[in-house]
């Protein structure tokens, strides 16, 4: 066995004693490669998130436009049904004023029904059951 000034030679992974490769250089190169890989991954995730956000905005805008168009068509259809009802009532001998009053009463009745229905749904908004679980005295 040979001694080198009293220190035993130990094998270092990634260190090639025959070529004189410094393990610090190898470790530095691996660290740089890891930083580059992480940076590339973060850039890729950021680019994907940006693209998906843009696609989401376009899709939400299209859905909102379709909802608005649908709402306008439903309103037009409702007005056509009311007009047809008034026309049929007048054709069958009812006065125009009476037919319009009946149409107005039907509209008010539908609005009242929708109001009562929505009033029942209001209690589902605001996480009331969750708040009751978290804050025992909450009502």
Which structural class should the secondary elements be placed in?
mainly alpha
Distance between the termini: 85 Å
Helix content: over 70%
Number of structurally distinct domains: 1
Describe the structure.
With 139 residues, this protein is mainly α. The N terminus is likely disordered. Helix 1 runs antiparallel to helix 2. It is elongated. The chain has one domain. 74% of the residues lie in helices and 0% in strands. It has 3 helices and no strands.
What key phrases describe this protein's structure?
single chain; 139 residues; elongated; disordered N terminus
Write the layout of secondary structure elements.
Blueprint: H1 23-91, H2 96-122, H3 128-134
Task: Give a concise summary.
This protein is mainly alpha-helical.
């Amino acid at each position: 066995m040979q001694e080198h000034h009293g220190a035993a030679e130990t094998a270092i992974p990634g260190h090639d004693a025959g070529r004189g490769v410094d393990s610090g250089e190898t470790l530095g190169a691996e660290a740089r490669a890891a930083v580059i890989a992480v940076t590339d991954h973060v850039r890729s995730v950021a680019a994907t998130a940006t693209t998906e956000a843009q696609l989401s905005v376009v899709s939400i805008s299209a859905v909102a436009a379709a909802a608005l168009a649908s709402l306008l068509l439903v309103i037009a259809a409702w007005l056509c049904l009311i007009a047809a009802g008034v026309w049929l009532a007048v054709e069958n001998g009812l006065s125009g004023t009476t037919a319009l009053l009946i149409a107005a009463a039907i509209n008010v009745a539908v609005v009242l029904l929708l109001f009562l229905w929505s009033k029942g749904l209001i209690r589902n908004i605001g996480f009331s059951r969750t708040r009751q679980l978290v804050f025992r005295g909450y009502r």
